[in-house]
Specification:
The structure holds 3 protein chains of 3 kinds. Chain A is α+β, with helices and mostly antiparallel strands. Chain A is built from 10 helices and 16 strands.
């Protein structure tokens, strides 16, 4: 299989990337999309990992840091290429394909921009099948592939090459991203196409292109199933006490209380740490990470950010089942409730 | 007060803990109707597996780390049929807690310090009777402080019996004091008891003549089987002050009459008996008193002279009056309690001197008391009460002053004869092993001096001796750390030793 | 008594409103009904085509052309420049402000309406204020619109709003002047698109918030009058009973009548709200105490602004506030949005 993502496919790709994405700000997404549009003229080749020569060096590309910082301090334009080139220098060999770390909003577009500017293919897959706030919360990590060496390109032209042992990346990355302005493009998880094929959640880019078409229904974006937890109205948005987590998470915990508007009228509490990591209905656990829990506005169908949730908003709470690898013991350790300081 | 009745041992309920127990004043959501048998401190959710029914679950640490943890705890509490969930008030939203408390029927209580609370609740749950007795004791103390005032008494009842509404109705069911229950009030002039829901407890208040003065009625939710007996007991405590109030009130209401009567006595003394009641009906008592040279404007000081160690014979009044008149001067003399009372415009020091002469001059052993100085006749009753109290305290042949009365005088005035028998019962375990009386002496010294060190000084023995004796005293079951026990023992010691 | 005025027909329509009730319609010239009125609320839609040319100054780093300022593109007349400077949201200066470049641009642009947008200005507006000083010094009488006043995070969107607002300013100034001439001595308010009123002064400075004030007021007025304004209906109940000359007979028929009814609804709708001010800021605070202090400052700013927007000082209250911590940024950065409202004096 080989196809291209060009100007014609970009709208569907962009729309698909937002179906379950949280944390995106309208502004940062718009600018990333405009940026991608300006580069997508010739189109980017989309390949399955298995179609590449097995030894092809691949790298995951993602945005790191704050989207609001990105929307305020615009990119200079050469960050994606700069990050990959810096990684290449560290590896001593060229990168032959890029893959998305995750496919949520800007993070789907940045690898596309990287592929377009470097003229390399984009691999049809990603490293989470959903979104996690930490760079090391990936199926690549679960497959034993290290995130480092990792290259970082900031908006003021800074380039950083970071090499360390697994588990230390997040801790080092965070202050670096803050130091270069609050956001950066990261190129990481250097691996062969062979390793990538075994470690990724495959086919997610194609699925996203499919699901992003106007006539598609939301569930078509979901490879492993989804369900509606409840429909209701947000009653309260509260801060939660800071929890003791391993690598400190990039945001303050918060808590959203939704009152079900139909049926049992249960009280649904969504405990969030950037992403919603736990859902309780009348105090009973009904969903937890690694499955993805999100609020969708019943007014316009858009995903409601935890940051933007306000009392009175009518939302549907949906649960998207994570890739099976996340439900293994290792997967739960990395992306389950305990990774977010929740002892259930 | 009678011995604890059935029901006192019934487990305390959550609501009882919150409204009148160790959780007083805490924020409670839910009905709190479940009984509490034990307390569990839960610091992580997995601990819930072993929570027994009727447990008050106190959340700390990870189990209280945010709204989600509390909500999960409430769910688990519901599954385990726990009595209630007690959570720290910091950082939680009461709103969702309230909704969930209602939905699950699990009571949620927010407190400032869960660990301290846990200890208190545990003690109340383990000994419900003691917890309730504590409430009764507190109510008794406050009732004693309130004095003979219906308003003050009802104020105490309603403050101490939180969650209950106590009202004082006259024998026709009309409101006298306390919380009004308008919908339950019978029409004016209508007889019988108030209609409405069954009362939690009801106690009759007799008047001095043994008739019915009124009823104390408490309404409120039935929080536990142990609650109505507690309420009934506390209401019972209020009967005496209310009866005293009634007497005082009547005295006040009839002050004019009493004055006239006293005036008449004096008039009879100076006029022929046939004129009794026939003259001066319209003349104001004050004017007549003034005519007699009685002081009617302040500052005034009451006095009371009483026979010491015996009852006054009916024929002795005139003699007493004569002596009082001769020593104190032109003052009213009325029969009051065990003696004769009145008031004088003399400064207290002078009055005390004159009374001392009076006591000496009386043909039988006597003592006298002086009340506090008051500004007018309206406040005279206070002064008279003081004088009466002082007279009771006064030694034979002496004059005691209410404004100089201290603890020693009060202790000295205890009716030792009446109390000797119960004191003996209380101290029985001690007296049984106290061959030479040293233990009783030591115990008294420790309690009087407030510590072993000073007691050793007073007794002239080594401190270790006192400590050893105290160990023996404690060994026979005296818990000196308990305030109520300590007071009772100290009183008993005094009665036995003096 | 308040006057509601709808501009945009060949002749303005005015209504007299007493205690919230529409009591009279005045078709020809608002001045005929002004006796006894204590304020006038104006509903007007501002035309965005053709757009007035604007000189846009972005204070930020370099970026791909596609992300550059909108002014100067074919659909947006005017000129634009990017000068070095701006701040990060954390408060750190990205680069010193290139004051010389600002001066050069101001001298050479040939325009008097300026839109200034600096990176990070919702957190630190210093560079925008510095640019404004330079413009004022170089070109006395220039109309300067600063992006931090809207405070919305997102440089491009904020810049777009600022440019559009700057482009509307000549039009707004004209309308405000004309209205003041019609109704001399009367305090005049303009209806915002999002509900609420602003003073004429604020309208002249930031007209974008009132761009669809006429349409929005018409919707509000229609909702309040419900069935009273159907094309076939008579005048709203009570309007002919009390005060001022009735205007119903001027309504005409057909499309003209529908437009007339819209104007009546808009004029009435404008009177139904009070002054509003919104303040959006990114604040940095270490600890709850400092955050409280910063929020108090923003509340005070919102209250001050709603009073300067024409609210009676005693009536100003904060009616909405939202504070969210910003993810992936150092602790203590918050996005605060405060809305204050008041009543017309």
């Amino acid at each position: 299989m080989s196809r291209r993502i060009g100007l014609a496919e970009l709208p569907a790709y962009a729309a698909g990337s937002r179906l379950f994405a949280t944390g995106a700000t309208e502004s940062s997404f718009r600018l990333t999309l405009d940026w991608a549009r300006s580069l997508a003229g010739q189109g980017v080749e989309l390949v399955a990992a298995g179609e590449l020569a097995p030894g092809t060096r691949c790298a995951a590309v993602t945005l790191a840091g704050s989207m609001i910082a990105l929307s305020e301090q615009l990119p200079g334009g050469d960050e994606p290429a700069g990050a990959v080139r810096t990684l290449e220098r560290g590896l001593g060999e060229p990168v032959g394909a890029v893959v998305a770390l995750n496919l949520a909003a800007e993070n789907a577009l940045i690898p596309l921009i990287a592929a377009a500017t470097l003229d390399v293919p984009l691999v049809d897959g990603d490293g989470t099948g959903r979104v996690f706030p930490l760079v090391e919360q990936t199926t690549f990590t679960l497959a034993g592939i290290g995130a480092a060496p990792l290259a970082l390109a900031g908006a003021s032209g800074e380039l950083v090459l970071l090499d360390t042992v697994p588990g230390r990346v997040e801790e080092l990355l965070r202050p670096l991203v803050l130091a270069v302005g609050g956001w950066a493009v990261a190129a990481c998880y250097p691996m062969s196409a062979r390793d990538l094929a075994g470690a990724q959640v495959a086919g997610t880019v194609s699925r996203l292109l499919e699901a992003g078409r106007p006539e598609s229904a939301r569930p078509s974006a979901v490879p492993f199933g989804m369900r509606t937890l409840c429909e209701g109205r947000i009653m309260a948005v509260e801060g939660s006490p800071r929890r003791d987590t391993g690598p400190s998470l990039p945001s303050l915990p918060s808590s959203i209380v939704v009152e079900e508007s139909q049926g049992l009228r249960r009280l649904v509490r969504l405990e969030a740490y950037n992403e919603i990591v736990l859902a309780l209905a009348d105090g009973a656990v009904v969903a937890t990470t690694p499955d993805q829990i999100c609020m969708v506005s019943t007014r316009d169908g858009a995903v409601v950010d935890v940051d933007r949730a306000v009392p009175g908003m009518d939302v549907e709470v949906i649960v998207v089942k994570a890739a099976p690898v996340w439900h293994t013991e290792r997967g739960l350790e990395l992306g389950g409730p305990r990774a977010f300081g929740l002892v259930l | 007060m009678s011995a604890p009745k059935a029901g006192w041992e019934a487990p305390v309920t959550v609501a009882e803990l919150v409204t009148a127990g160790p959780l007083a004043g805490a924020l409670m959501y839910g009905t709190g109707e479940k009984p509490v048998h034990e307390v569990r401190i839960v610091d992580e959710p997995s601990a819930f597996g072993t929570v027994a029914p009727h447990t008050a679950v106190v959340l700390v640490g990870a189990a209280a780390s945010g709204g989600w943890a509390v909500e999960m705890a409430m769910r688990r509490a519901w599954e385990q049929a726990a009595a209630c969930v007690i959570a720290p008030s910091s950082g939680l939203s009461p709103a969702s807690g309230a909704v969930l408390a209602e939905r699950l029927g699990v009571t949620l209580i927010f407190v400032d310090d869960p660990l301290v609370t846990a200890v208190r609740v545990a003690s109340a749950a383990a000994r419900p009777e003691a917890a309730r007795m504590q409430l009764v004791a507190r109510a008794a103390t406050r009732l004693a402080e309130a004095g003979p005032s219906a308003r003050a008494v009802l104020g105490v009842l309603n403050a101490e019996l939180q969650g209950a509404s106590v009202t004082f109705l006259d024998r026709y069911g009309r409101h006298l004091a306390g919380r009004r229950l308008p919908d339950r009030e019978p029409p004016e002039g209508g007889g019988g008891r108030p209609a409405g829901p069954a009362a939690l407890a009801e106690v009759e208040v007799p008047d001095q003549e043994g008739g019915l003065l009124g009823r104390l009625v408490a309404h409120g939710s039935l929080r536990s089987p142990g609650w109505p007996p507690v309420v009934r007991t506390v209401l019972g405590l209020a009967v005496a002050p209310l009866a005293a109030w009634s007497a005082t009130a009547r005295l006040a209401a009839s002050r004019d009459f009493t004055l006239q009567e006293a005036l008449a006595v004096r008039l009879i003394e100076r006029r022929p008996p046939r004129e009794e009641g026939a003259s001066g009906e319209q003349e104001s008592a004050a004017a007549r008193a003034a005519a007699l040279g009685w002081p009617v404007r302040g500052p005034l000081t009451a006095y009371l002279v009483r026979p010491w160690g015996r009852r006054a014979g009916p024929e002795e009044g005139l003699a007493a009056q004569a002596v009082i008149a001769a020593t104190v001067g032109r003052v009213p003399v009325t029969r009051r309690g065990e003696g004769w009372a009145g008031w004088s415009a003399l400064p207290p020091d002078d009055l005390a001197e004159r009374l001392r002469e009076c006591v000496e001059a009386l043909p039988w052993p006597s003592a006298a008391g002086i009340g506090t100085t008051v500004e007018s006749l309206e406040a005279m009753e206070d002064s008279l009460l003081g004088a009466e109290a002082a007279a009771i305290v006064a030694e034979r042949g002496a004059v005691a002053r209410a404004d100089r009365m201290g603890p020693a005088e009060l202790l000295g005035a205890l009716p030792a004869g009446v109390l000797r028998a119960p004191a003996g019962v209380i101290l029985q375990p001690l007296l049984a092993i106290d061959k030479d009386g040293t233990l009783l002496e030591t115990l008294t010294a420790v309690l009087d001096e407030g510590g072993a060190l000073k007691a050793a000084e007073r007794l002239g023995v080594h401190r270790n001796t006192v400590t050893t004796r105290l160990e023996r005293i404690k060994a026979v079951g005296f818990d000196l750390d308990d305030a109520a026990t300590r007071l009772a023992i100290q009183l008993a010691c005094h009665v036995i030793l003096h | 008594m308040i006057l509601g005025v709808a501009l945009g027909r060949p002749t303005p329509v005015a209504v007299v409103v007493r205690d919230g009730a529409l009591v009279a319609i005045v078709a020809s010239g608002a001045h005929r009904a002004r006796a006894g009125a204590r304020a006038a609320c104006v509903a007007v839609d501002l035309a965005e085509t053709p757009m007035a040319p604007v000189a846009a100054i972005r204070v930020a780093g370099r970026c791909p052309a596609v992300l550059g300022p909108m002014a100067g593109r074919p659909e947006v007349p005017g000129v634009a420049t990017i000068v070095c400077g701006g701040h990060r949201l954390t408060g750190r200066e990205l680069a010193p402000l290139d004051t010389e470049a600002v001066r050069r641009f101001v001298a050479g642009c040939g325009l008097a309406d300026f839109a200034v947008t600096a990176a990070g200005s919702p957190a630190v507006p210093d560079h925008e204020l510095a640019v404004a000083e330079i413009i004022a010094a170089e070109m006395p009488g220039a109309r300067i619109t600063l992006s931090y006043e809207s405070g919305r995070p997102g440089l491009r969107e904020r810049e777009e709003d600022t440019v559009r607002s700057a482009a509307l300013r000549p039009q707004a100034a004209r309308i405000a002047d004309e209205t003041a001439r019609e109704l001399p001595g009367l305090p005049i308010y303009f209806a915002r698109t999002a509900g609420g009123l602003v003073s004429a002064t604020y309208f002249c400075r930031a007209p974008l918030v009132c761009r669809l004030g006429g349409t929005a007021s018409a919707a509000r007025g229609r909702a309040a009058l419900s069935g009273d304004l159907s094309p076939g209906a008579g005048p709203p109940e009570g309007t002919l009973r009390d005060g001022g000359p009735p205007g119903w007979e001027h309504a005409g028929s057909g499309p003209e009548r529908a437009a007339y009814l819209d104007a009546v609804a808009a004029a009435y709708g404008a009177t139904l709200t009070g002054p509003v001010a919104e303040v959006e800021r990114i604040v940095r605070a270490r600890g709850g105490e400092e955050l409280d202090r910063r929020l108090r400052e923003i509340r005070d700013e919102a209250l001050t602004r709603v009073v300067s927007a024409g609210a009676a000082p005693g009536s100003a209250t904060v009616t909405a506030s939202a504070v969210n911590p910003l993810s992936f940024l150092p602790d203590g950065l918050y996005w605060a949005r405060i809305t204050a409202t008041g009543a017309t004096p």
